[in-house]
Amino acid sequence: GLIRRPLPADGSDTPEEVAREVRAALGVDDGPIADLVGVLEAAGVVVVMRGLGSERIDAMVSWPEAQRPVVLLGDHIPADRQRFSVAHELAHAVMHQVPTESQEAEADRFAAEFLMPARDILPDLSAGPVSVPTLARLKEKWRVSIAALLRRAWDLDVISDGRYRQLNIELARAGYRSVEPVVLEEETPSLLGRMVKERIAGGESVAEI
Fold this sequence. Notes:
mainly alpha, 3 strands
């Protein structure tokens, strides 16, 4: 199941190492995660999709002691960004019981390794020249945004700083910063709905629940 794994202050462990540990703890196979929400719900994480009152907030997480983790996921974001947001919030739940100055960057690093493990994605990113069309094809396989794949290629030193800037300019000019090509199927939470139905079937009323 899901584990708490605070990052030590001395930097002896990295967000990437924690991400690999969490994948193993959740029983995730190598390669892309086909259904991230399904993996988390199977581990007892409650995921709720709803309006969060602001389109500037993609997701939030809460994990009180001795209770289930709960992820609130904005219903306004596309599936590719939705998955990275969930992985980012998972990172906070696992690593950041005490807030730190670098927690947002650490959560992004965790999410990138959790969804796109370096060992598994490097062959795909290194198979040929990195371009917008190749990233669009990889988007369907890895189920993350073209922007996230581009950043991963840069972080893993597959492309140079100059090529990274150039491809970001291409994405912006094509209008892909707001709406990307290759629409991914949305992952729909079901755990909470199933729990409510079971309790109603067991004789409880909605008010009691």
